Amino acid sequence: MTGQSGATVRVWVKAEIGPRHVVAQVLDTLNNPIGEEFVIAEPHDLYEIARRYGVPLDSFDFEGESADIIESSAPPTDA
């Protein structure tokens, strides 16, 4: 599925599962879910959702500490 015009992606910590369990879900223009929730283990997972559903990265809505948790899960880069 690609090119979801007006779609957004909600990214949040699903606290009932764990304090660092981040999930994402694609929402249509009326905030209805499109598909299932995705577990976000690393930043690359967000790019995969963007590619699969055609949602631009600036349409991702990070709630609470979700962005910090995802960033901290990224593998270290060689400097």
Can you offer a commentary on this structure?
24% of the residues lie in helices and 28% in strands. It is α+β, with helices and mostly antiparallel strands. It has a 4-stranded mixed beta sheet. The radius of gyration is 13 Å and the shape is globular. The model has no long low-confidence stretch (mean pLDDT 89).
- Unreliable runs: none
Shape: globular
Tally of contiguous helical segments: 2
Reading side by side through the largest sheet, how are the strands ordered?
Answer: 3-2-1-4
Spell out the helices and strands N to C.
Answer: EEEHEH
Question: What structural category characterises the helix and strand content?
Answer: alpha+beta
Question: Strand portion, in percent?
Answer: 25-35%
Overall average pLDDT: 89
- C-alpha termini separation: 37 Å
Helix content: 10-25%
Query: Could you tell me the radius of gyration in angstroms?
Result: 13 Å
Largest sheet: 4 strands, mixed
What's the total number of strands? 4
